[in-house]
Amino acid sequence: MSGTDLLLWFFAAAALGGGVLMLVARHPMRVALALISSMISLAGIYAVLGVHVIAVFQVLIYVGAVMVFMVYVIMLLDVRDPSFLERYGRVVVPAVALAAVLAAALAVAAGSGRIMTAEELALFHDAPVATSFGVQPFSAEFLDQYWLHFELTSVLLLAAVVAAIAVIRTGRRRDG
Amino acid sequence: MDRTQLLLWLSFALFSLGFVGVMIRRNALVMLMCMELMLNGVILSLVTFAERSAMLSGAVLVFLVFVVAAAEIAIAIPIVLLLARRRRTLDVGAWSELRG
Asked: Global pTM?
């Protein structure tokens, strides 16, 4: 087993461990920290795969923006809330059984069949095959072919900000 | 074991863990975080296939999904805060009349 494979296994185990911790941790802050560790492990996996841009985005957008927002909200809320103390609802057993069936089906699906290599896949599409996923080839492709989508994301983010403000204002008016 | 196979299994495991979390946890914020875990599992399989087929357009798609996830959280958290302010709790059981 080579060094990169070892790293991959390590990060995979860490991501899985973070996911399990999310289910058993009681306080939302611990859940958030478990999710952050899981996300950072996934960023490690992306880095090992050589997809450096996605690894950086994972840390910047997910850990840096989304989870910091989440942690901030958790700190804002009341810790005497009963839902902070009692972990599970009423449907634990059927939910776990359903998810176990789903996981088994997915595992069988992933285990059967064969996954095509890049050379075989290249026979089916006209897109150029990337030699690397580094910052420079990614940026060239991104801003050359997908600049319109990039600009549209800013419109989407603006719409999200306006919607968030609208939600908060509506709630304030109802409360009096 | 093949690297792609390992990552696919990890992605399915993360998705299933998030699915369990959304269904069994009581706290609305924790449910949101479990949904993020599900999304992360899906993104992992997307990145795996993009890397496997050596297509940069897959990486671009992942970036767009990240932006959508950020927008989703920006709207979901104010809604959760609004619910918490109305009933003074984050327990989704307090909103069971939404069942219809």
From this structure: 0.89
